[in-house]
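Tutorial sheet, problem 5. The two components below are modelled jointly, 252 residues in total.
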Amino acid sequence: MHRSRLYGLFIDTPRDEAPAAAAFWSAALGVAARPVPGEEQFIALAGAHPALTVDVQAVDDAPRYHVDIETDDGAAETARLTGLGAVEVARWLDCHILRAPGGHLLCVVPIHTDPEFFAAHARTWP
Amino acid sequence: MHRSRLYGLFIDTPRDEAPAAAAFWSAALGVAARPVPGEEQFIALAGAHPALTVDVQAVDDAPRYHVDIETDDGAAETARLTGLGAVEVARWLDCHILRAPGGHLLCVVPIHTDPEFFAAHARTWP
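Model answer (structure tokens):
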């Protein structure tokens, strides 16, 4: 048995345009834009949404959004989602990067939110 | 003075693949997938997140996500966001479709959530 929940929205932006994107989304959503210490490609927009993490991420790729699913068991959650038709396209540290049926990117990541919030909102899978 | 908040995540999917995408996301997030009456290009994933509307949308375009910002004044919110650097690229009914600095699509839409929830979570702009 393991648990997971839709955790984050990432505004993946070509590296050169990431500062402009962070400035826009910061002003658009009314929150500060702050680089994540140790992972400076992520610019956190803390407070942009009451129950969803929103970051700008600088990438070497075309602009896109992706979503993160946080889980207490990355291998089990990845197996569950690939069993539903997603394809694992990459690994990055302890994140599994999948492409869903229909073509969208999602990442399976360890629990990032407060454990009590996770416990209250995650779904349990057999 | 007007108000707005980040309201929705839309999984825009090429029309032919939208049923497979809806089936995947429904199972992945543990919720039903139901067409929105009168707007059958939208397949609602109600309950996918406690405070964010999540839909699959069938589109005649490449797969992408987009976000919606709901507001009590679409013209004022669109003017605010274009003033921050976004470009209005289309209109669809009472929705303003914008491209943000960095290249991401967002839509400005009328209030869709419960008015009390909107009032509790929206930001106020001068």
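Marking note: The interface with chain B takes residues 5-6, 9, 11, 13-14, 17-18, 20-21, 23-25, 27-30, 48-52, 54, 56, 62-67, 69, 80-81, 84-86, 100-104, 121, 123, 125 of chain A (CB under 8 Å). Full credit if you identified this.
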